């Protein structure tokens, strides 16, 4: 009986958070429309366009972590390193390299837009 409570509570929590988010957003928008404010608040701004660029960050990070796991496996199998050291060091090293690569790409993209 307890095993079924975990998925049900997780689903209820996610549903509750999403429900509150969308109903609150709807109420805010209706209040703005009733006040007669400008509708430009509903359109994406430069900050929201910049947020879309961060999906590239998570993609690069995920790929680099995958490469780190692969390199950790190679170090463990071929060089005989302890598996904890090989996997953890390569995951953090490659994840850090991925974030640095994204930062460089982001700087180049921002400088080309100016």
Number of helices: 3
Distance between the termini: 60 Å
Largest sheet: none
User: Helix/strand-derived class?
Assistant: mainly alpha
Mean pLDDT: 85
Helix-strand string: HHH
> How helical, in percent, are the residues?
over 70%
Counting structural domains, the number is 2
Question: What's the oligomerization state?
Answer: single chain
- Write down how many β-strands occur, each being a DSSP E stretch of 2 or more residues: 0
What overall form do the CA principal axes indicate? Answer: flat
Gyration radius (Cα, Å) is: 23 Å
Beta-strand percent range: under 5%
Residue stretches low in confidence (pLDDT < 50, at least 5 long) are none
Characterization of this structure:
The chain starts with a helix and ends with a helix. The longest helix has 34 residues. The chain is mainly α. It has two domains: 43 residues, no CATH class; 71 residues. The mean pLDDT is 85. The chain is 86% helix and 0% strand. α2 runs antiparallel to α3.
Which features would summarize this protein structure in a list?
86% helix; 2 domains; mainly alpha; 114 residues; 3 helices
Which SSEs are present, and which pair or pack?
Blueprint: H1 2-35, H2 46-78, H3 83-113
Helix pairs in contact: 2-3
What is the gist of this entry?
The protein is mainly alpha-helical and 114 residues long. Helix content is 86%, strand content 0%.
């Amino acid at each position: 009986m307890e095993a079924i409570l975990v998925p049900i509570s997780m689903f209820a929590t996610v549903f509750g958070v999403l429900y509150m988010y969308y109903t609150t957003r709807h109420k805010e928008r209706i209040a703005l429309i009733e006040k007669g404010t400008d509708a430009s608040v509903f359109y994406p701004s430069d900050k929201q366009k910049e947020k879309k660029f961060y999906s590239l960050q998570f993609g690069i990070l995920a790929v680099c972590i995958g490469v780190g796991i692969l390199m950790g496996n190679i170090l463990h199998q071929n060089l005989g390193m302890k598996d904890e050291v090989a996997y953890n060091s390569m995951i953090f090293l490659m994840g850090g390299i991925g974030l640095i690569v994204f930062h460089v790409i982001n700087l180049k993209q921002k400088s080309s837009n100016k």
